[in-house]
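Render this sequence as a predicted structure.
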Amino acid sequence: MGNSIVNRDFVGARLEPADQLALLQTYTAGVISQKTLLEQLANGDVLGDDFEVEEELMATQNGGLIEMAGGQQQQVEDSIPEDISTNDS
């Protein structure tokens, strides 16, 4: 009897929370790089369509600072997406 393999390259599957945790643990343990972690989370539809891995890597390498014209640096602020409510009501 033969074996068959399902090609999942074109299946849009969101990573389950357990898989997300496993990725985070492997990153924290130093087994995978930050780039690999972010790419896997992005591919798993965790980070959103507009998330740019390279942009995030640059921001974290610069300590959250971005360089502006004229050589000045500006702090990159974390923002809460508008569709997430912080109220407990």
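Summary. The longest helix spans residues 17-28. Residues 2 and 59 are 49 Å apart (CA to CA).
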